[in-house]
Amino acid sequence: MPNVIACIDGSRITLAVCDYAAWASRQMDAPLDFLHVLGRSEYPIPADLSGNIGLGSREHLLQELAELDEKRSRVALEQGRLMLDAAKARAVADGVPNPTSRQRHGELVDTLLEFQDDIRLLVMGRQGEHGDSAGEHIGSHLENVVRTLHRPILVIPADYREPQRILIAFDGSATTRKAVGMVAASPLFRGLPCHVAMVGADQAEARAQLDWARTTLETAGFEITASLLSGQVEEALCAYRTEHAIDLIVMGAYGHSRIREFLVGSTTTQLIRQSKIPLLLLR
Fold first, then answer.
1. Residue 127 lies in a domain
2. String of DSSP letters for 191-204
3. pTM (predicted TM-score)
4. What digits encode the pLDDT tens for the residues 58-108?
5. Could you tell me which residues are beta bridge partners of residue 226?
6. Distance CA 95, CA 209 (A)
7. 23 & 131 share domain
């Protein structure tokens, strides 16, 4: 059965990852699985340093280096296990029955690709272990994961607040139509007021697309507010979010080629940087 999988790394944002993952698990009645991946820096591969050490002390220093690397790897492993145990305990306190955990060595993207068929929803922090400072920093692994994985990814800020209103950033594309269908069919947002916002010129085609989204969601039982906005996409959506006290945005991710994004920038990356609320990203 596909799980809600939450990536934790010991950073300050880990607590919010645990809480949002627990909320999603309860809403979807899906198993919750915590994942901790030890990167290569935390289990270094022994290197041949014999050419860099003086002849007189070579063997002694090589032995000390090997022992230090082994000790560092053991400490990182144990720290990860304790972190996973604490995350499971927090989820149980949040009302999730029998959360599980797994710890792996390697690269995060490779590990998630291996587990992709098990993922119903992936929960990740916007900033990782080395990104706790304030501002618009994005965790080093996040963009790579979003571009690579074809699963819904909930990107969350540092502080937890249970979602009360959601916004679907809609543009009529196949990805955002899929987002509307997913919201309509999923228990994740059941019972929450839903806003649908489209940024662009006020034309008949845009109105027809927006009406389709409204009808689809109303048929599924949602209370809908649909709006056609003008201006730049990022600024318009962020202003709408603030005005209507939106708690979570659903949007498509990286819908253009890398060349076009290099020339004009990526709406996905900009919104991740600017958003102070969770983003549910769909590919």
1. yes
2. TS-EEEEEES---H
3. 0.82
4. 676 777 777 777 777 777 788 889 999 999 999 999 999 999 999 998 889
5. 196
6. 39
7. yes
